[in-house]
Write a structure and sequence with these properties.
Length: about 500
């Protein structure tokens, strides 16, 4: 505190302004940047949450469309009867029945450009009816039907999606109405480009990874991010935890994960984005906020410097003028006239200087007058010596002429003159005052024929009182009528009789 008190007013103003501007700006900037970062991060997470939800809805629509394609084999009673006869009776198809089934298969292929071919498996016989864009044929089912049957209880429904090489297989079982037993299997060979295109539509950043699983937790289609290096076991563990838990979103291993289930688990979506990607996406906005904060801080510093200089400059100029001023050479302030508090200080300073000059002049004049008085006193001292000598001559002549009274009066008068003209003493002894009084009374008695009597009853303790009483007595008593001057310290009054 002492150190702050001793620094210049400009530095005090500068430090105060910086303290009262920088601290709020920094606090507001930090809070604003923090809120901006959190808001934008939440917004980005929300955007990816909506993307995963949109993908969920889109895949649900694709699954629904695929179910409509499958129902083409069951809504036509003749076709359904042909399939039942083929798969449950003699296992043979006449020309018309085969033509009806192949017509339905070709119709489905023509309705959906994503379907390369359709296979209709006879689950009782080792046969499969294949319809391609180039034609149709009957072939042996081979191992594919066996693999399907091996799924057994793991099959969650009569519909599933599998990945086979460069194709996606959409499978659907056809059942008998009476005992609900599966008799046939319809398989659509789909091009993966359609689903991959859907994934590409919702992908917002290259680092984002989208995985689509089937009901057997197998990756059916995927769009991996540029920085993807996740272990398969870790991904499967995260997928299982999100699928079985209440949370469908979580942060693991510096990644943010989103899980969605499609059509009761027929397909599952796992979308992940690195946390660093979110940070990088926020960097331009955060950097802009930091830049604005820096600009605000610099502006505050510049304004503080300019403002402190503007305020302290008049005070500094006045201080410099006060340091270098000389009374003899001062003819008035050279500073610009002002109406504020600084102007009041300038006016007060000018008035003080003018008053000091006047006082100095008065003091100088008093010293001159005192010196002149001393000179006059010295000059006056010359004449008393002449008078003293003259009175002594007169006294000596009186003694020669045998006139002692004349000598006594002359000696008393000489003592009075010497006492009265003594300028070297401001204070005298009581004894001298008394002798002066006696000499004065003796001269008055010689003048008035001894009519004046002096009676002293004072103790020599108070010189000032004696002098005041004596002056009063000499001034007010009527000597011409005769009388007595009595001075008493008890009542400190004079009386005459």
């Amino acid at each position: 505190m002492t150190r702050f008190r001793n620094i210049s007013i400009r530095k005090k103003i500068l430090v105060s302004m910086l303290a009262f501007t920088l601290i709020p700006i920094l606090l507001v900037s930090i809070v604003a940047i923090t809120i901006t970062y959190k808001t934008m991060r939440d917004q980005l997470i929300y955007d990816h949450r909506m993307s995963s939800g949109w993908l969920q809805d889109r895949l649900a629509v694709e699954n629904s469309d695929m179910m409509d394609r499958f129902y083409e084999f069951e809504v036509d009673k003749d076709v359904k009867a042909d399939i039942l006869r083929w798969c449950t009776q003699d296992g043979s198809l006449d020309y018309s029945a085969r033509w009806r089934i192949i017509t339905v298969m070709n119709t489905v292929i023509s309705m959906d450009s994503n379907i390369n071919s359709i296979e209709l498996f006879n689950m009782a016989e080792n046969e499969v009816l294949i319809a391609e864009r180039s034609g149709a044929r009957v072939d042996e089912s081979g191992e594919r039907l066996t693999q399907w049957e091996q799924r057994g209880d793991a099959l969650q429904s009569n519909q599933a999606f599998l990945r086979s090489g460069n194709e996606i297989l959409a499978c659907h079982q056809i059942h008998r109405f009476d005992d609900k037993q599966p008799i046939a299997l319809v398989v659509f060979h789909l091009r993966p480009y359609h689903l991959e295109g859907i994934l590409d539509e919702i992908k917002t950043v290259p680092e984002e990874t989208i995985l689509v699983f089937n009901d057997q937790n197998e990756v059916m289609v995927a769009d991996y991010g540029t920085d993807w290096n996740m272990d398969t076991g870790l991904v499967e563990g995260i997928r299982r935890e999100l699928a079985e838990g209440d949370r469908k979103e979580a942060s693991y291993d510096d990644q943010f994960w989103f899980y969605r289930s499609v059509s009761g688990g027929k397909m599952q979506i796992l979308l992940t984005i690195p946390n660093q990607t979110i940070v990088d996406a926020l960097f331009p906005t955060v950097a802009s906020s930091i830049f604005v904060a820096i600009i605000a801080v610099l502006a505050s510093v510049v304004c503080s410097v300019v403002y402190s200089k503007a305020i302290s400059r008049p005070i500094r100029d006045l201080s410099e003028e006060m340091k270098t001023i000389t009374l003899n050479e001062y003819s008035g302030s050279t500073l610009e006239s002002r109406e504020d508090e600084i102007g009041i200080l300038q006016d007060s300073f000018n008035h003080m200087i003018t008053r000091n000059k006047e006082l100095i002049a008065q003091q100088y004049q008093a010293k001159l007058e005192k010196r002149n008085a001393q000179l006059r006193a010295l000059q006056a001292q010359i004449n008393p010596h002449f008078m003293y000598n003259t009175l002594q001559v007169i006294g000596g002549m009186a003694l020669e002429k045998d006139a002692p009274e004349v000598y006594s009066v002359t000696l008393a008068l000489s003592d009075i003159l010497r006492y009265s003209l003594n300028f070297s003493k401001e204070m005298v002894c009581l004894e001298e005052e008394v002798e002066y009084l006696k000499s004065y009374v003796m001269i008055q008695n010689e003048r008035f024929g001894g009519k004046v009597q002096l009676k002293l009853e004072l103790e020599p303790e108070n010189e000032e009182t004696l002098w005041e009483l004596f002056e009063s007595a000499v001034t007010h008593v009527c000597i011409g009528k005769g009388g007595e001057i009595s001075l008493s310290q008890k009542d400190q009054k004079e009386c005459a009789s």
